[in-house]
Write a structure and sequence with these properties.
19% strand; two-stranded antiparallel ribbon; single chain; alpha/beta; TIM Barrel
Length: 252
Amino acid sequence: MFSIDLNCDMGESLGAWRMGNDAALMDYVSSINVACGFHAGDASVIRKTVETAIEKDVAIGAHPGFPDLQGFGRREIKMSAEEVFDIVLYQVSAVKGICQAFGGKLHHVKPHGALYNQAAKDASFAAAIAKAVKSIDDNLIFYGLSNSLLISEAEKIGLQTASEVFADRTYQADGSLTPRNEQNALIKDLEKAAAQVLQMVLEQKVTAANDETVSLKAETVCIHGDGEHALEFAKIINAKLKKCDIQIKSVS
């Protein structure tokens, strides 16, 4: 039996009373990525999400993004590499401190949205994020898009990485994610998403939107917590993996 990490973006609301399915989702994933307040979340939501994750024994990651609440961190913002370093340093430090305050431990860092996508193709952004993570704690695991600069730049400075693939997103022939502004960017069919996950985990390949087969490394699978059917996605993907004797376990 081998294992795969199932991660989920969480804490992406404002006000702890609006956290939706986050607690229920934690029963079906092995790690979570907590919004740090710049693209979503606030002090109360971060604290509540961290407390719940510690209670449920789920690995906790920081999910830093651009300072863009109105755009949910999904709009490209022009910044220098130094500014990217600073915003990541600030956000990850906050979540790490909250984890420690409640007896928990920060496990990994995964950039969010446009910051993630820009850094996947921009070596200076990827390096800035990785350096910020390493300056905080060089034992943190760096989650990034499989086969992207996020992974290679983090590995250059000695960080452990986890190559990430996506359950509910389609892929292009170059291994990049289909931009969200394109019609077929999201996979809304539960069975189709589960089939894609099994292909990526078992074969280390994905079928791109143009039907080409793309090789990739799958060490952690993302389920978006803000998705319309996030809980159903998590349940069915969890069940399908276990049926194939695949253990769901955080990256060690």
